[in-house]
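protien #1 (seq + structre)
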Amino acid sequence: MTESDEEQEFMSNLFTDESYVPKTFHFGAQTITVLRLEASSTDFDLTGQIVWPGAQLMGAYLSTRAEMFKGKTALELGSGVGLTGLLCARFCPVVMTDHNETVLKVMRRNVAFQTEVAKEAAIHEVDCMQLEWGNRDHLNAILARHPGGFDYILGADICYQQASVPLLFRTVRQLLDVRIGANFILAYVSRIKGTDELVKATVLDNNMRATEAPGTRQKLANGTLEGWVYVISSN
């Protein structure tokens, strides 16, 4: 078995592990409990079943801007277990998306968990739909259900694979084109300088502009990573 095969088998095993446990997160006045996998040494890992470092960054951003979302709608890309989307749903209706069926399953469980078990606060309407970046059929299905598009597109820590960055921003561009004045809020975690540069270049390639939100830059994952929030819009 090659190194690539071993890595693929490892990732496959991660995605088929469904031994979820609840964990509570606090963002300002908001408290959210979600089911997620427990990693052996950290709560962060390379799968949508784990809560990623960027969720902390996005949570801090959203929890201090509740007024911004009143009367608006949002779609989250790469929602994973749904922590970011469920926090946003405290403020406005949200569509949460992911490409993986197993991840969508736990995402839907977490939506139900908010009303059946957690009962921490009322949430707006939440829809969970499949979306693989670059898949026009998936996107069309979402827009058929939500023809007016969305005011905000959200993404927390979703630029970890360079190969997926062009597809991500192609999808973002298509979503921004549906509604005039829409914005993509990206909680970005810097891991590799090459990815940092690729993200900036891909934003420009898609005729968009990215602005770092003031005061959002912070250390994450026990100081081993740094992240910040980009607000990205059409030119």
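ok now protien #2
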Amino acid sequence: MTDLEISNYLAKHNYKVKPQNFLMDVLNTSPQIIDEKYDFRTRIMTLITPQNTFSFEWNY
């Protein structure tokens, strides 16, 4: 998935994603992701690519 596709995916899901779906739909198809950070207190996941940083909420 390109950065634009990730951005569109997050917007479509209001920046609240189900972890299993996101892992399969985005993380497994986005080789440009260079780092991932998760804040357990706020449930915010941050993905870093060479061009962008994406933050969103894990929706359990």
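The longest helix spans residues 3-12.
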